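In this section we walk through a basic example: taking a raw amino acid sequence and producing a predicted 3D structure, encoded as discrete structure tokens. The instruction is simple. Fold the sequence below.
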Amino acid sequence: MKANFVAGESVKGAVTRLTAYRQLRRFSSDDIRKAWGLACSFDICDCNPDTIRDAEAIKRFVRELCDLIEMKQFGDCVVVNFGENERVAGFSMTQLIETSLISAHFANATNTTYLDVFSCKLYDPAIVEEFATKFFGGSRCIAHVNLRL
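The resulting token sequence is shown next.
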């Protein structure tokens, strides 16, 4: 699937519980065209505990996401399991991309995924939101979309 950044076009018929499309409507087409980059965060709730505790699944997610939004990975995906405090324990992931960074933390205590995608190459955050929510089996997602001007 080619993910050209045209607000709303690639998300027609998207699941109504997703929030990135509504966030995008805050910006004009001109703002989007002039933006230096896009920084989005996705809080995905009630994820499948097996998926967010599987380092290989997380790496596969990154590869598939990069293909989907046409971002080129730079170096290896790093996935580290840490956290002495049970509240924050879980995997953390970083993946440099040629246009910036994808990162996430997977909180075991709440089965929540906290995903951040920052890039100076525009992408459709609604595609990221829908893909990530389905991949991790989340019940809902809250997206925060910010243009870097």
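Looking at the output, two observations stand out. The first strand starts at residue 37 and ends at 45. Confidence is low (pLDDT under 50) at residues 1-17. In the next section we compare this with other chains.
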